[in-house]
Amino acid sequence: MPVVAAVITAVATIAAAVIAAVASGGDSPSDSLRDGPATASVTAPDPATESGPSAAPSGPPVQTMPATGPPSPDSGPPRVAVTPYTAAEGDKVTVEAGGFGPGEQIRISFRDSGSVEVDLRDVTTDSDGRFAAEVKVPAEVGSGHDTPVFRVWSLDDVDSDNTADTPFTYID
Asked: What is the largest CA-CA distance in the chain?
């Protein structure tokens, strides 16, 4: 046990020296070691003066969907989710998407591992640019190396970047 304590003390001394060198503007940890080991103090926050977090998060998480459903059209590019994201051929899954315009015609398709794409269903978005639809998982007919995906895109605005896809996994 004395060896462990000595190692911990040595590591703490080196860490304190590095912190002191950085704080004092020194070029290396050895600058502050010449003057002896640095000391550090820690003070507990005072609950009476604490007012909570200092800043809000810098932005929304990347490519996440809110728990209440897909995003509205003003929240960025289209997004899609499939529940469950693993299923067998012929099973029903729910495709939910958002980020489209109100009343927009959307096509749901499936691209298998061999890049064979099958159109499954057309739907119309609600007043918030969202939809949810049940579809059957098509058969895997490709034999390639691509990841199968469900894809949604706007039939009303096909020339724009108005599409989204999400990976899918077949199960037996």
From this structure: 75
**Residues whose CB falls within 8 Å of the CB of residue 103, separated by 6 or more in sequence, listed in order:** 124, 125, 127
* Banded model confidence at residue 29, pLDDT cuts 50, 70, 90: very low
pLDDT confidence of 69, banded at 50, 70, 90? low
Q: Which amino acid is at 107?
A: R
Tokens at 104, concatenated: 């927009």
State how far the Cα of 28 lies from the Cα of 22, in Å rounded to an integer.
8
Residue with tokens 């007919």: 141
Look at strands 169-170 and 86-87 and give their pairing.
parallel
Rounded Cα distance, 101 and 109, in Å: 19
CA distance 81 to 166: 6
Closest C-alpha among 13, 17, 15, 49 to residue 30 = 17
User: Cα separation of 112 and 66, whole Å?
Assistant: 27
Nearest alpha carbon to residue 123 among 150, 148, 149, 153: 153
Q: What's the pTM?
A: 0.56
